[in-house]
Structure formats: C-alpha cells, structure tokens
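Ligand-bound model needed. 2-acetamido-2-deoxy-beta-D-glucopyranose.
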Amino acid sequence: MRLPGLLCVAMLDITIAYKVLEVYPQSRLVRITCEAPKLPQPITYSLLASRGILVAKKVVHNSSPALFNINITLKSSPDLLTYFCQAASNSITYGPSTRLQMYWELWTKPVSQLQANFTLQDGDLGPTVELSCLASSGSPPITYRLIGNDGRVYAQQKPLHGQPASFSLPLTRMSGWFRCQAENRVGVQNSPRTLLPPAQLLLTLTGELSLMRTVVTAGSLISIASIGSGMLGWTRL
Ligand SMILES: *[C@@H]1O[C@H](CO)[C@@H](O)[C@H](O)[C@H]1NC(C)=O
Ligand SMILES: *[C@@H]1O[C@H](CO)[C@@H](O)[C@H](O)[C@H]1NC(C)=O
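Prediction:
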C-alpha cells in the first residue's frame, strides 16, 4: 500500500544535530550538522540562530550533510544558542528543522540516567566482564570511573560527548563489588554495585567446569541487563 502523504513529509525532513568537538575553559567548539538527504542537489544549507539570524551558509553538491563548526563562548546568551537549519534546492526553501537548544546541553547539565551493563564474555584469556557505562546526558563531558568496594578507582575514561565508556574486567584477576561512576563538574551518579564474578559463574568455576563452558559459549554472551532494578538477572544473548 502506498502512503504518498507520509512519503512527502519524509522527503522534506531536515535534521539538525550537534557534537562537541573541543572543550576549552571558556568556550566550546561545536559542530552542527544539517542534513536533507532526499532533496535534489546542489543543496544550499543555511544555519540560523533563534530569531532567524543567518549564521552561515553552505552549498553541498553531494549527499553529505552540511557541517558548521562554531566556537561558542561562555558569554553567549541562551537565546543565541538556539539554532535551526533550512535547505534550499531548485529555488525552493525547505524547513525549518526542529530547534536545537544548546545552552544547557553545553554548560550546566548534571549527569543523568546512568546506565551500566555488565556483560560476561568467554575470551581467550578466560572469562571477562565487559562493563559499558553511559549517562543519557551530562555536560561538561562526563568522566566515567570503574570503582571497587573500597572506593579504589581501577580505571577512568572520558569518552567523546555522548559515547559510552567501556571497561574490561578479567575475572581471573578481579573480583569483588564494582560500580560505575559518572561525574562531571555539575553532578555525579553511581550505578548499583555488582558482585564479580557472578554467583552462577562461581558455582560453575568451583564445580562443573564443563557446565560453565556450555553456558558461556552457547551464546558466547551472558549479560546482566536489568542492573537498574537492583535485581541482577542473567540474560543469555
Ligand atoms: C575556539 O576558541 C578557543 C579559545 O576560546 C581557541 O583556542 C580555539 O582556537 C578556537 N577554535 C576555532 C576553530 O576557532
Ligand atoms: C545496556 O543494555 C541495554 C539493553 O540491551 C541497551 O539498550 C543499552 O544501550 C545498554 N547501555 C550501555 C551503556 O551499554
């Protein structure tokens, strides 16, 4: 069944997104991406600030998005940090895109909704737990730490804005309670603590090794996904 109305709307879709490229003490270098993949080329993209002020224009001759690098200083008012895109093709202007509001994103967003996934993997060097941590938002960029029960920091990562941190815990060398901590200047969150090695694995390690082999290699992955609930359920992937 054809849905011409929906197709038409999809064709005119202009997306706007951004990424923090560099963090300076008093400013942020931000890349704003405007994209209207369905429009005939060449496409003239305009980046506009809140009240329709033209910030920059770019002509794109292929299907790539238009990239605008902007240096945003701390002095900028929130108003000036609202952006949207328009795209012109064959003398017709499309858009505007949805509004991108960056002020709070860039300057003062405490860490929120930290998610930590512990995934058991059977590697060449024996069982390893891969810990993946990601907060849904937080700005300035978040530092993630792997912390043991005694408060000891085992590892620390500062991935790119919006990217998860991943830590590898070889079970032959690491055991005890672990948690992931996400921290930026304006906030901190901790995941629930998790006991490693997991009880199920301990049982099989001390008991039937063959059983563990079966369990671990069958899907080669077992994960504790429902970590947020505090109930550690093992899921075979
Ligand atoms: C952005 O501003 C910082 C200083 O706040 C400066 O060091 C940096 O070179 C600027 N980057 C660009 C691309 O203009
Ligand atoms: C954790 O697992 C859930 C469910 O599989 C997934 O949606 C989420 O993206 C994962 N988060 C991280 C930080 O790996």
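The radius of gyration is 24 Å.
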